[in-house]
Amino acid sequence: MADSSSINSGSPSFLVAPSRDRGYLLTEQVNPASQQLDQLSTDDLVGLFIEEDLRPQQAVSGARTALSQAVDAIAERLRGRGRLFYLGAGTSGRLGVLDAAECPPTFCSPPELVQGILAGGAPALLRSSEGLEDLESAAVTDLQQRDFGPEDCLVGIAAGGTTPYVRGGLGYARDLGALAIAMACVPTDQAPLPCSIDIRLLTGPELLTGSTRLKAGTATKMALNILSTGVMVKLGKVYGNRMVDVAASNSKLVDRSIRILRDLLGLEREAALRLLECAQGSVKRALCMGSCDLNAEEADALLTVHRADLRSALFSKGMTLPVQDSALPQ
Fold this sequence. Notes:
8% strand, 14 helices, disordered N terminus, 5 strands
């Protein structure tokens, strides 16, 4: 039998046995419910997936306290000069990039406010490059290229909790004094990560063993939805449940903007469209103008005083807007 050291010495780095057996990780365990997956009827296979996909919601519910802490901590930093970064490899990294990319059209936030960093960069979005996740130093380089600093926030996403790229990024963020938040789908004692807030989404073994794009990916997407939306709500980009910071930049968003103005100001469609045009497509500016009888410049000045928080700005004028179901004919 060959000596193991001689085998490893000539092997690529990813074939060298890791210092700890990954088989014990929750995300790498075999799911007994799917041991006959390849022999199931199509209907039974689909039914099994539907049943198992209830678990991501349960996992997110179990992380409620940590998610709440993260929303408040991130919002506090973003009220100053801070930015939010998601960092990960493979599916985890792609989900972070997706959530970051959806913030500007949803909340009219500047693209630099929420950023996704994926091991391997843009090419890894379309073509797998998971080998790059083994480099701790690569995360540090990627963060430095974006001038990541102590006032910023980093959410390091690693389903299995052992990704060196994510560990390196979180360690760097913590050493800088930035807000370091870990998100993983295994218990902390299986894979501790350097962080201030530890979000654990315990979805259990996957139906396809080790394929964390499944339940782990679903739970991660749900958790990121909560983080980004919760933070934007705290930053005043939502009034009731309306996206008042939306900018009417295409026909769909124009229609949505008009509905918001009709619902909250009680306007007919044509009047809502005229107001939106006077507000240069900004729903928040239009709501401020229409409710307080201000021109665009006056509305902007009022919102600036109140850090773009519409509710606070209206309250200062003794105004509130009725939040109700959209019942007007479209």
